[in-house]
Amino acid sequence: MRLFKIALFLSLFSFLLSPTSALAQTDSLKTKIENIIKNSGGKIGVAVISVEDRGTLTINDSVKYPMQSVYKFPLALAVLNQVDKKKISLTKKIRLNKSSLEKSTWSPLRDKYPEGNKDVTLDEILNYTVSESDNNGCDILFGLVGGTRTVNSYIHNLGIKNISISATEKEMHSGWNVQFKNWCYPSSMAELFYKFYQGKVLSKSSREYLLRIMEKTVTGANRIKGLLPKGTIVAHKTGSSGTNGEGITAATNDAGIITLPSGHHVILVVFVSNSKDNDKIRNEVIAKISKAVWDFYTGS
Prior knowledge:
The chain is of the alpha+beta class and 300 residues long. The chain has a single domain (24-298), classed as DD-peptidase/beta-lactamase superfamily (Beta-lactamase). Helix content is 43%, strand content 19%. The protein is globular and about 55 Å long.
């Protein structure tokens, strides 16, 4: 009987620490975020995971949001998985051909090597692709690991199902609707970040390497980091689409890991889709959601 009581106590204690219990504690945060987004244009999806206690919340989650360049994070995971398997190395030299450096796309890599005909390391291409969201670097990496289908299968095999990686950057530039082939639920992207941060995806060295280059991200400074205290460490990946003739912007996204003053971490994913709001307003929505998350977990 004594053993039964101990087992019952442990079971109840485990329940109180479960994600469901932690989720119940985030009701006030969820309400605050809902108030932030209620007057915003388009569809806004949010996912939050408190890494150390596994508290979670989602808003407007079951929607196929276009990822745009946020998908360069799962691409980087697939590349570094190949590094961990010793199939390639970060010092591997990759030939840049002028024909592979598209002119009508965002590419600091092309700006540095406009004529191509240069051997650059995988490390340099990864840094440009992740930290500066380089589109040419992205497609070079897809070619290196076997294409979008290979990356998609790799991510699905990690247990992340509500995600589709189907089109390269070049293909997305071929037509407005192509970008919607690369979609994800906010909770799925948050779960992928969680698995990565917990060390369940890559080796320790590859995990630390990717964290470093995501912390150096220069795009989307007014999104997750926009209203956080100066110097806050955020390892994140942004994604942005163009705006069509009807004034609709398909994607304004940010996803990443915020380091709190306590040393704990919060994963935040915000996808803003099909919005007629201007750039400033879309970025501010993400920044305000991030600040609400920060205030909740720091007790500000």
